[in-house]
Structure formats: C-alpha cells, structure tokens
Amino acid sequence: MDTLKPNSANSSPLTPIGFLERAAIVYGNYTSIIYNNTTYTWSETYRRCRQLASALVSLGIERKQVVTVFAPNIPALYELHFAVPMSGATLNTINTRLDAHTISVLLRHSESKLLFVDYPSRNLILEAISLFPSDTSPPSLYFITDDDVESSLISDPDRTYEGLIAKGDPAFKWIRPESEWDPMVLNYTSGTTSSPKGVVHCHRGLFIMALDTLIDWSVPKQPVFLWVLPMFHGNGWSFTWAMAAVGAINICLRKFDGATIYDAIRRYQVTHMCCAPIVLNMLSSVQQSGPLPNRVQIMTGGSPPPAAILSRMEALGFVLSHGFGMTETAGSIITCAWKPEWDRLPLTDRARLKARQGVRTAATAAIDVVDTKSGASVKWDGSSLGEIVLRGGSITLGYLKNPGATTESMKAGWFHTGDMGVIYPDGYIQIKDRLKDVIISGGENVSSVEVESVLYSNPAVHEAAVVARPDEFWGETPCAFVTLKTSESKKPSEKEIIEFCRAKLPHYMVPKTVIFIDELPKTSTGKIQKFMLRDMAKSLGPLQKSRM
Hints:
Layout: H1 18-26, E1 31-35, E2 38-41, H2 42-58, E3 66-70, H3 75-86, E4 90-93, H4 100-110, E5 114-118, H5 122-130, E6 140-144, H6 161-167, E7 183-188, E8 198-202, H7 203-216, E9 224-227, H8 234-237, H9 239-245, E10 249-252, H10 258-268, E11 272-275, H11 277-285, E12 296-301, H12 307-316, E13 318-326, E14 331-335, H13 347-354, E15 359-360, E16 364-370, E17 386-392, E18 398-399, H14 403-409, E19 410-411, E20 414-423, E21 429-434, E22 439-441, E23 444-446, H15 448-456, E24 461-471, E25 475-484, H16 494-502, E26 513-516, H17 530-539
Parallel strand pairs: 1-10, 3-4, 3-5, 4-7, 5-6, 9-10, 9-11, 11-12, 12-13, 25-26
Antiparallel strand pairs: 1-2, 7-8, 8-18, 13-14, 14-15, 16-17, 17-20, 19-20, 20-21, 22-23, 24-25
Helix pairs in contact: 1-2, 1-9, 2-3, 2-6, 4-5, 7-9, 10-11
C-alpha cells in the first residue's frame, strides 16, 4: 500500500469551472440563461465564456490577478463567474449598493487590474476612481450593456463587454489552476462591524461547496433557478457554479419587487430560488389570487422565518429551507435537515424546528459549539451557550493582506464564526447571537436573537433589533429598536411592547427600553448594523431604575 501515491491521473486540481464544460456537452442545446429578450443555451454560454477568457489573456491579465465586476444579476455577471477564472485570474464581485468611497477602497485594496461596469453605474464608478491617489493606477474599465442599455451610447466599442467577447477565440483552451488551492474569488464581507475584510476562496473550496449545496438541497437536474439572491453576495452562495453542474435554466433579474418575482415564477415555472429573510417578508405581503402553479423551493439564510410568514408562504406553495453560512464558508455549511415526520407537527412546532440552523452539510468535516473560555464542547442540552466553530473544505483560505484577522479566526484547528449557539440533544444547532451581541444582564446571558423572535411575533411589529444598554444596577439590559407595520391603525406604546415580552420571556430577558424607529440601519446587503444601534443605546446613558 505504501507504494501507491498520488499521480497526474488521480490528482487533477478540483475546480467548479469544469461544470460549464460538461454542461456544454450534456445540456448543450438546452437553455442556460433567460433575461428579458435574451436567451442563451449552455453551449453558447460555454463559447462566450471561452471567448471572454481568451480576450482577458490577450489584454495581459495574468494568473491570480484580480478582475472586478460591478453589476446586478444580468447574464454578464453569471458568465464572468466562469470566464474570469478560466483566464487564470481571480474574480471579485462588488456589491452594487455601496457608495463611491467604499468602492474606491475595495478596488485599491484588491489591486484590481480590470473592472467590468454595468453601464448605468458608470458615474458612480468614475467617482470612485477619482478618489484614487495620484500615484495609484486605477483598473481598466469595460462597460456592460444589455437589453436595457443601448450599446450605441458607448463611444468606444472596444471598451464594451460584448466587444471583448467578439475579439476572443471560441476555441480557447481555458487555463486550469496549477493547484486546487489557487485563489479563484475574492469577496468582501458586508461590514456589519463597519470594517469589511477581503475573503479569499480557492478552486477546491468552491468545487466542494457547489456540489455540497446541490446534495443538501436535493436539487434535481435542470431546475429553473430564479436569481433573486445577488450574485455579488458570496457568489450567490456558490449556486452560480452549482447551476451549471445540473444544467439549470438561470432566470436573471436586474431588479425586482414582490410582483416581479411572482410574475417570473408563473411565467418560467420557477422551481428554486434563494433569498434573504427580507424577501420573504416582501413575498408574504403581496396579495395573490391563489396558490402558485407549482411548488417553489426557497433556501433562506440569516434570521429564521417567523411562524406567521412560514404559514403564509406554505399556503402559497413555497417550501422553505433554512441554513447558515458566511462569506468565509462560500455558502450554507449548516442546514436544518428536515425530517418527513416533522411535516405532521403543528405550525408552531414546525416554525420552532425551522428556526434551528441545523446540522453540518455532507461535505463539512465537523462543527462544534465550544465554551469561549475553556474551548471545551458544550453540553447537548439546548441551553449551554458557546461559540460555533467549523472545519471543512469550503472554509476560506484567509483574509487578503490581513494575517492578524486570519490567525484570529483560525484557532486550535477550527474556524471561529463569532456566532454563539446551543446544541440540542438530537444534535441540531441553533444560533442564539453574535458573540459581540450577547447581552450580559446581572450575570445572565441574554440572546438578542431570542428576544427579537418574541418581538416579531407581535402583530404590530415589522422589524426589530435588540442590543445592550448600560444599566447602573444590572450592568446592561436589553434595549429594543422597533419599526411598526404601516397597516396598523393603533400603534402600541413602549409599555405595551414590554408587557407583551414579559408574558413570553423570563424577566431578565425582557427589554427595559423600547425605541420606535422609522427604519433600522442596515448594510448594503440588508443586514442590520447593530454596532450603530449599540452606539445609539449607549448615547441614551445608563438606566438608573431598572430593578425588577
């Protein structure tokens, strides 16, 4: 046995780019992308990506250099997920909701060599580039046009996305990674703590995550996938590459609202989509004449769906799956693996079970919840709190130009998520809070997530976020920031909200302060910026009479 070793036949670098090459053979004449009046087949998508990769190489783009894209969910953004790494370069997708200053910082930090820009965003990008220091060269700009943008508006056709494709070689032999550990994408975190970091993923990790998500979600061949989740957000949780593996039809939307999503579902017979919890709120509030023509699988992350939304979505024909992932994991790495017998449970019990993030996916090596001081595993009792830690092939290589943050996150052989959770006796994990968001009141740990869940059950509450407020007696106590539904004619008072929580929570977990606010501060990806709320709560000063 000792003489048997890896060789060139059995150790070819893993990469999800090969999924596109296979799709061109297996699903060549089947539709790959639909966007407005544009339709491509998988063989056309493969050809276009090879041409673009060829053009990038001819421009002098080299291995591991960064190529950035600033675009919404249009065909070009999907194609660039393959074309850029096919040239040997590293793909960087930037959030289209960012401001010029942040964009400028990210472009300089990544040392991007070339930037593809959705033409309607040209002024924003030009402003970002104008902020470059005089001694720093900006990336070369190429503009993307589509059904909504006339290419004649661009004076130099050589500076267009389609112009580059036209120059490329359709027979180009795409550049395979020298090692499966070579960087493939660079993603920036959303900055809920105000400081985004550059997360680097390799070909191997993205290959593992793409296949893992298909297995975990039981995605069949040739699904119809609606792109509501931004592809710039963790590369669409790696479903960009995963959809090529199963020959899916990718329905692209430049922008959307609830009515647009329903229209697309009915028109294209959508079977799968991913979205943030805010989109679930959007869909559940749109009036529909009846249930959907077919069942639609939805994968959501972040906050679990409240019972009221779960009931409404199920009645319409949606099947919700809930999971946990981070930019650093390339997609969902813990999911609420559903058991058939749970379907027979009452709605409240199903909502309680769906609120749990769940168990590790098949390709994840290990997960645990550990005490933050001793590092020992917590008890499987559903109440012992600890930090969730991970091991697996899809974990990031680390943070670009930030060895300190890389070392801090990779300790004792684990990736430390910064999320606090518990493990139930059946082995399922539930996130209770971010490590920095746990409120310690009178020596008791208060989960802001648990308090928020109760607040969301109030029929008048639209959104809620809970942070710590200084307290002279207890040290700190829960402070709730609440937005109310506009449809409610009678607005509840602070006292009524507190009493509502008191009936459902232990007294030490009940908010002592409730602040009604028009809109919660959020990142460009819709995550609540609790650091801003903490500052607001701190500015109120310490509570002086919160003894119970």
